[in-house]
Design goal:
Blueprint (H helix, E strand, L loop, with lengths): L1 H11 L10 E9 L2 E9 L8 E10 L2 E6 L3 E4 L5 E4 L2 E2 L11 E5 L2 E8 L2 E6 L16 E10 L2 E9 L2 E14 L2 E11 L2 E3 L6 E4 L5 E4 L2 E2 L11 E5 L2 E8 L2 E6 L16 E9 L3 H22 L1
Antiparallel strand pairs: 1-2, 1-11, 2-3, 3-4, 3-7, 4-8, 5-6, 8-9, 9-10, 10-11, 12-13, 12-22, 13-14, 14-15, 14-18, 16-17, 19-20, 20-21, 21-22
Helix pairs in contact: 1-2
Length: about 300
């Protein structure tokens, strides 16, 4: 095993990619008329006792989470403001007064903790200066987040007028020869992609539907006809593979019954994928390098 590790090190010494540290958490919360489940991705380094939330995916009452808002202050539907700091703590309480804010459907939702109670504050229930004050703090919820094992994959794609890159997060168990994509982070033409749509069928801007199965295959072609769907900027995008070609199908280009049919498949893209080594593997390789260097010098002397 050690010989294999050393041999691998000598071959790949100049091509070891930089680790994009990340943790994956399954989360859920529920309250009066509310049910949400999904996944949160965070940084892997604790700062002041908390991880930074970098992405979110899931369903809120059957509506997909479309995007995670950056930490800050955002105008709410009712005229008030929603405040988030995007911090997740490993022990209870796992959220603080800032919590995190996301968009789903036609509204924004802030999930946070106040006085030992988790709450979901919808923009529609956040009127002006009373927002967040007693009586206007939102709906009490039960919230939990648990870390789960994950694989991380670096991806990029480009085509006519489009360039995107980022990271896909999958569960570690394979089903039907594929890993399940449960999260993503990255940018598309400068717009953040930080929310993955759960597998399913979603209405597109043009009136058609975007279909995703969130299957990722370890060998090319890496995607199937379903692929994965995310939100960036003002639209939704489905990345998939059919008949020997990868495509990006934008909602705006997905018109009614013609969506996904010949001539309406989207933009042809070149798609690339590579697994990101786990930090423990890189640590072993790094520890082996001094010994390799010494052995080479001794052999040459």
């Amino acid at each position: 095993m050690i010989r294999k590790l050393l041999a691998l090190t000598t071959v790949t010494l100049c091509s070891i990619p930089t680790v994009h540290g990340e943790l994956l958490w399954s989360y859920s919360y529920s309250g009066s008329g509310i049910s949400e489940t999904g996944y949160i991705t965070t940084s892997s380094t604790l700062v002041a006792g908390a991880y930074s939330i970098t992405g979110v995916s899931g369903l809120r009452n059957s509506q997909p989470v479309e995007s995670l808002l950056a930490a800050g202050t955002y105008p709410a539907s009712g005229g008030g403001v929603l405040i988030s700091d995007n911090l997740l703590y490993p022990t209870t309480p796992q959220l603080d007064f800032g919590g995190f804010t996301y968009r789903s459907g036609s509204d924004l939702y802030n999930v946070y903790n106040l006085s030992a109670q988790y709450l979901e504050l919808a923009g529609a229930n956040c009127p002006g200066s009373t927002c967040g004050q007693p009586g206007f703090q939102g709906t009490p919820i039960a919230f939990s987040a648990n870390q789960v094992p994950e694989f991380l994959w670096q991806f990029s794609y480009s085509g006519a007028g489009v360039s995107a890159s980022g990271y896909l997060t999958t569960l570690t168990n394979m089903v039907g020869g594929a890993y399940e994509i449960v999260g993503l982070t990255g940018t598309r033409d400068g717009d953040a992609m930080n929310s993955l749509f759960p597998a399913g069928t979603y209405g597109a801007s043009g009136g058609g539907v975007l279909i995703s199965d969130n299957d990722l295959f370890p060998d090319g072609p890496y995607l199937g006809l379903g692929g994965f769907t995310f939100h960036a900027g003002d639209d939704r995008y489905n990345i998939y593979y059919v008949d020997g070609q990868y495509y990006e199908l934008a909602g705006a280009d997905c018109g009614g019954a013609t969506c996904g049919q010949p001539g309406h498949l989207g933009t042809s893209i070149v798609f690339s994928l590579s697994p990101v080594p786990e930090p423990t593997v890189l640590a072993l390789l790094g520890a082996a390098l001094p010994g390799i260097s010494w052995a080479r010098r001794r052999k040459l002397s």
